[in-house]
Amino acid sequence: MDTLLHQLAAYDTFNVMVIGDYMLDQAIYGAAERLSPDAPVPVLHATTTEDRAGGAANVSLCLRALKARVRCVGVTGDDDEGKRLREHLTNAECDVSGMLIDHERPTTVKRSLIGLAQHRHPQKMFRVDMESREPLNDNMQAELLRVVGAHLADVDVVCIEDYNKGVCCQEMCRQIISMCRAAEKVVLVDPAAIEDYSKYTGATAITPNRTEAELATGLDTPVESDAAHNAQLSSKLLHELNLDAVVLTLDRHGALLHERDQQPVHVPTNARSVYDVTGAGDMVLAALAGAAANEFNWPDAVRFANAAAGLEVEVFGVQPIPLAAVQREIMAQQRSLSGKVRTADELAIELAVHRDAGRRIVLTNGCFDVFHVGHLLYLREAATLGDVLVVGVNSDAQVSQLKGDGRPVYSQNERLELLSELESITYLTVFEEPTAEQLINVVQPDLYVKGGDYEPQQIVEYPMLREQGIEVRVLAHRPGLSSTEVIDRFTKAYGNRS
User: Fold this and answer.
1) Does the structure show a pLDDT above 60 at 496?
2) 61, 63, 234, 407 - which has most CB atoms within 10 Å?
3) Which of 21, 25, 282, 446 is catalytic?
4) What band does 251 get if pLDDT is binned at 50, 70 and 90?
5) Which whole number is the average pLDDT over 292-316?
6) CATH topology for the 344-494 domain
7) What residue segments make up the domains of the chain, in order of their start?
8) Which pLDDT score is estimated for 269?
9) What is the 3 state secondary structure string of the chain?
10) Is 80 a catalytic residue?
């Protein structure tokens, strides 16, 4: 099986610290239908203001979408914008106790004026930046480093998001990276567009785009950038900064991965019909953090990040991409999703998508050998109890153990082929175990159903189901409708014929 799919199936929540330049992105919308009488410029009649997290704050929201527990470390000014930014992060369940107030600087705000003319689509007219690019004073640096040191043991990964607004100054980066290395913590850097990357020396990895890498290395930019040029960029950064890896993002062409003591590898991405790069770099950093925390290897980590960034560019503006959507995208890239049969790992990934969408998942299981009207009615009723019906089918070996010699009459492939034609069933999977406990752990259903004339407490898996809080229901038994009874009827009717 593809290692990335296997890792995605086991993907778990993680703890991350995001250090850097926290910003408030503010969009002011209105009508722009006339020119100013005192200058040849349009007048915006503002009607709506919308605040969004920007910079390191957007990285934090991307990480939350990827199931991270996020600790935010940075500064805001003592102003309304800073309060709104912290509220935005708090509402997303980020820990903002490490967000300090610096009375000497304003909260960084990117204010875009967006006008609508003649009832057409909105158009950005102008942007106003309110910020300070001065390095933090010594007291603020010391306090931020104290916060980092106090909580470093509790996180799996540290992300540095640098927009060159004063938080990630030379001394801060040097000390943070040194602390992370000493504590054996992964530290990932999304670098600023600056000429000197020396402050990132010793980080685990950096994620510049090609333009940023060219600025930082001073290498000439060819008219048509090729693989050799990209490798030259990554190699220079890798060795001069003593990194474990460089992930050079290449826009719609994916990324170049260059690990220490390895040859650079191009990791492509899928072409997109819609393309808005806003927020893609933030999504890359967040996805790499999730991959690192879950111990993906570097090639799989970059594939994961490419998929997340690819989904990000398909939406306009900045919208964090949920983990389930990234998992589904990677699965779609790896195999055709036609049909209903899934492996356990594939099933876990797809069900995560349904679960995130709030759909009710129903699970049942059985041999389904010599399919008959009793099976049909039972599965039809089970499907009405939820939105997604998963059917676990006993393997041939298990049917033989359960039913004895001569069974199954139909092989598991034949049984799957037949069951796949039923509209009531969403997914089918084969399980090899004598009980359905492992299947239940994979599916994590809202409701587990069985057919028969017994009480739920008599189901072998009942103690486990009760412990996990999974609802259990036994559907009405229909006398005379079982595979064994159907086989007996055939034997009596036709058994003596030669």
Assistant:
1) no
2) 63
3) 282
4) confident
5) 88
6) Rossmann fold (3.40.50)
7) 3-334, 344-494
8) 78
9) CCHHHHHHHCCCCEEEEEEECEEEEEEEEEEEEEECCCCCCEEEEEEEEEEEEEEHHHHHHHHHHCCEEEEEEEEEECCHHHHHHHHHHHHCCCEEEEEEEECCCCCEEEEEEEEECCCCCCEEEEEEEECCCCCCCHHHHHHHHHHHHHHHHHCCEEEEECCCCCCCCHHHHHHHHHHHHHCCCEEEEECCCCCCCHHHCCCCEECCEHHHHHHHHCCCCCCCCCHHHHHHHHHHHHHHCCCCEEEEECHHHCEEEEECCCCCEEECCCCCCCCCCCCHHHHHHHHHHHHHHCCCCHHHHHHHHHHHHHHHHCCCCCCCCCHHHHHHHHHHHHCCCCCCECCHHHHHHHHHHHHHCCCCEEEEEECCCCCCHHHHHHHHHHHCCCCEEEEEEECHHHHHHHHCCCCCCCCHHHHHHHHCCCCCCCEEEEECCCCCHHHHHHHCCCEEEEECCCCHHHCCCHHHHHHCCCEEEEECCCCCCCHHHHHHHHHHHHCCCC
10) no
**pTM for this prediction:** 0.77
CATH for the stretch 3-334:
3.40.1190.20
pLDDT digits (tens, 9 = 90+) for 426-463: 999 999 998 999 999 999 999 999 987 778 888 999 99
